[in-house]
């Protein structure tokens, strides 16, 4: 059984997230998703997600293509998570191309093409303009 791990914030879940998760799931038999915590987002991106960690975890858990979900507390703990969840492959969108190559000794590292023209930041902008 091939175990896939992927990470993300998944705030305001959109089609780019869904396509990435479905393609990641199709690369193996069991998809594990690390949902980044509110604290991690605040420290790395200077912005709190719109949806809380607990809500984002619940939303990702509800997806058919996802088998297991945990909270990603730190970007630097990826090696630990890969080992803890016995992942055979780490899959991320290609906005992260090359960024996780250091984990290649632990598992396969795959970057999938991102969906163009949509992002959480853009959605927040579009929604604000409609108010
Ligand atoms: N994604 C995509 N197409 C988009 C937007 C996002 O394929 N238009 C992918 C990203 O490449 C990523 C996943 O969806 O693989 C989640 O995206 P984000 O929620 O933006 O996650 P991010 O904040 O990049 O991850 O360890 C990584 C951290 O958890 C942060």
Task: Please give a structural write-up.
This protein is an alpha/beta fold. It has one domain: 3-Layer(aba) Sandwich (Rossmann fold). Helices cover 36% and strands 21% of the residues. The protein contains five helices and five strands. A five-stranded parallel beta sheet has the order 3-2-1-4-5, with helices on both faces. Helix 1 links the parallel strand 1 and strand 2. The chain is globular. The relative contact order is 0.22. The mean pLDDT is 97. [cytidine-5'-phosphate] glycerylphosphoric acid ester binds next to strand 1, helix 1 and strand 4.
SSE blueprint and pairings:
Blueprint: E1 3-8, H1 15-26, E2 30-36, H2 38-45, H3 53-61, E3 68-72, H4 78-84, E4 89-93, E5 108-112, H5 120-130
Parallel strand pairs: 1-2, 1-4, 2-3, 4-5
Bound molecules: [cytidine-5'-phosphate] glycerylphosphoric acid ester (C2G).
[cytidine-5'-phosphate] glycerylphosphoric acid ester binds at residues 7-10, 16-17, 20, 36, 72, 75, 92-93, 95, 114-115, 118-119.
Beta fraction of the residues? 15-25%
Q: Kindly provide the name of the CATH class.
A: Alpha Beta
What is the overall shape? globular
Largest β sheet strand count, sense and barrel closure = 5 strands, parallel
**Which fold name is given in CATH as the topology?**
Rossmann fold
Number of DSSP helical runs: 5
| Count of the separate structural domains | 1
Give the spatial strand order of the biggest sheet: 3-2-1-4-5
Number of strands: 5
CATH homologous superfamily classification:
HUPs
CATH architecture: 3-Layer(aba) Sandwich
User: SS-based structural class?
Assistant: alpha/beta
Helix content: 25-40%
Poorly predicted segments? none
For this structure, the quaternary state is: single chain
Bound molecules: [cytidine-5'-phosphate] glycerylphosphoric acid ester
> Average pLDDT value?
97
CA-atom Rg in angstroms: 14 Å
């Amino acid at each position: 059984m091939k175990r896939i791990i992927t990470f993300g914030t998944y705030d305001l879940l959109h089609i780019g997230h869904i396509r990435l998760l479905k393609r990641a799931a199709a690369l193996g038999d069991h998809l594990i998703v690390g949902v980044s915590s509110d604290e991690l987002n605040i420290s790395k991106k200077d912005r709190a997600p719109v949806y809380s960690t607990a809500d984002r975890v619940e939303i990702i858990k509800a997806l058919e293509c996802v088998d297991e979900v945990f909270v990603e507390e730190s970007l630097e703990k990826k090696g630990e998570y890969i080992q803890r969840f016995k992942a055979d492959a780490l899959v991320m969108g290609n906005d992260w191309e090359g960024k996780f190559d250091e984990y290649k000794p632990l598992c396969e590292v795959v970057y999938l093409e991102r969906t163009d023209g949509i992002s959480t930041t853009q959605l927040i902008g579009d929604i604000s303009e409609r108010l």
